[in-house]
Amino acid sequence: MCGIVGYTGPREAYPIIIKGLKRLEYRGYDSTGVALHNGGLKVYKKKGKVAELEDAIVGKDLHAHVGIGHTRWATHGEPSDRNAHPHRSASGKLAMIHNGIIENYNQLKKELDNLGYSFSSETDTEVLLNFIEEIKKNNQCDLEEAVRVALKRVTGAYVILLLDEDNPDTIIAARKGSPLVIGIGKNEHFLGSDASPMLEYTKEVVYVNDYELAIVKPDELILKNLGNEKITPYVQKLDLELAAIEKGGYDHFMLKEIFEQPQTIYDCLRGRLDASEGTITMSGIQQYAEDIMTANRIIMVACGTSWHAGLVAEYIFEELCRINVEVEYASEFRYRNPIINKGDVIIAISQSGETADTLVAIENAKEKGAIILGVVNVVGSSIARTSHGGAYTHAGPEIGVASTKAFTAQLAVLTMIALKIGYIKGTISQDRYMNLLNELQQIPEKVAWTLKHSSTIKTLAQKYKDAHDFLYLGRGYNFPVALEGALKLKEISYIHAEGYPAAEMKHGPIALVDENLPVVFVATKDAYYQKVVSNIQEIKARKGKVIAVITEGDESIAGMADDVMIVPEADEILAPMLSVVPLQLLAYYIGVAKEYDVDKPRNLAKSVTVE
Ligand code: AGP
């Protein structure tokens, strides 16, 4: 996700743009930049947050009545000055900002390379910009037409804003798959990724739809489709306040991020998983496929929620790749002087990419000859840069301290790696491989189904919010999900919760069970199902309250449990991406019911960069 802002009208553009970018920093903060047009194009951009750019260009010529601005969440090309937006075309006469991913940018780049183009950045954005300029030059058409022709060749998601040195008051914008709002003022127009940059100036907005192109002048807004047909703008009145807009209309970032998961898992799979072709494309893994296949063992190294993702991955890799997997708390792994053999592969899992224990653990292992692969969300972060290879989770900025969408994105990436390696190794049959690819492709919509059927969880939260302790139980792939559910509850509601393998109850913890103890079972239909049913009966026999995450249509457990939360049927390997969602919501709604700050829980930080 990136934040984009534009302005054209009688006011000074720069103050409007820079303030708007600050409001959009929740969408990304790797680098920022502005392009202003005042007789000629001026571009100021740098790595870092908006305030750093602001400080760096004090005293520069910032006078202009039209401009565009961008705050970046890196996807292609790590955070740096040269990868920051806006980008300028080869001729220098065009400047563009972009939010999204151009999936076929490599192909477009090859065509431009053959025409002698060179590039100053590693971004897909610069490729698209020069592709547009090449069409403008080659077809001898205006910029609007060149954008239309170019976008018909583009696959992926985009919002682009363009300035043209030859059209000083005009901004050309287009969108597909990423958001664009245009604010209607008196002889002025505002553009933004959401309405937050324009809210103080106007509440009349137009939400641009996919495959639409906007030609925006101070006193005129023209909307067209890619077939060059005019569209009547549908002007709406905003009734949201600023805080709500940044959270996308949700009460908290945590809830927004839980509900973003269908999209973020889709973004994680996009451009990598092609179920119809039966292919998984991950260049950062492909080059180490041989190392993984021949590894004596794979060691998952992480902390917290990411460690839980590593536990799920242990089951998946051992099942699909038949490779010995160990899962290590980074903090323990780094201090106990572990035995690392050449040929060991370490997978470091981290949302922030800056967790100190994980970073030092892989630095030590790298010195001892291990291959380090990162499964990281923040592009260009320390763990990503320390790793030999890996794959980004593309979940976008995760603002809520409790990790939610990053966890399911980690599982999606780890599943794709295991499927890819298992297929190459031949430890998974063609049928099972193809079935799992098709099922994995359906996970975003199954998460959406789960969210749509989650309305009862708010009621459950009211019923159980005063409990002093919880147990979370699961078996197999759902055991790590039980741990994750317990962690979410602890973090957000400050209620003590413990996760255990369900079978472990009889070795002591069952002594805790009485009528005051809610026990959450992650009990989706899988190979362990009948055993879990027995465990539920053991708890019920001791008057424990049972809340169960069950597979849609499971009347058996529904008849035993006090309360149920439902997920769609899915292969047990993929089920954790579904069964965790009700647990995320249960923790969230209990935290809200107890009136805690669920986005910033006490004592916690989003990224633990200290030891
Ligand atoms: C999870 O909800 C917590 N915020 C915390 O356990 C987190 O997962 C852990 O600190 C690891 O962070 P990382 O994924 O950024 O490395």
Quick tags:
3 domains; Glutamine Phosphoribosylpyrophosphate, subunit 1, domain 1; Rossmann fold; eight-stranded antiparallel beta sheet; 27 strands; alpha/beta; 611 residues; seven-stranded antiparallel beta sheet; binds 2-deoxy-2-amino glucitol-6-phosphate
Give a quick precis of the structure:
The protein has 611 residues and is of the alpha/beta class. The chain folds into three domains: 3-244, Aminohydrolase, N-terminal nucleophile (Ntn) domain (Glutamine Phosphoribosylpyrophosphate, subunit 1, domain 1, 4-Layer Sandwich), CATH 3.60.20.10; 254-448, Rossmann fold; 456-593, Rossmann fold.
Structure characterization notes:
It contains 21 helices and 27 strands. The chain is α/β, with parallel strands linked by helices and 611 residues long. It has three domains: 3-244, Glutamine Phosphoribosylpyrophosphate, subunit 1, domain 1 (4-Layer Sandwich), CATH 3.60.20.10; 254-448, Rossmann fold (3-Layer(aba) Sandwich); 456-593, Rossmann fold. It has an eight-stranded antiparallel β-sheet with strand order 3-2-4-1-10-9-11-15, covered by helices on one side. Strand 7 (156-164) and strand 8 (167-176) form a beta hairpin. The protein is globular, with a radius of gyration of 25 Å. It starts with a strand and ends in an 18-residue tail after the last helix. Residues 303-306, 350-352, 355, 358, 401-403, 491, 607-608 line the site of 2-deoxy-2-amino glucitol-6-phosphate.
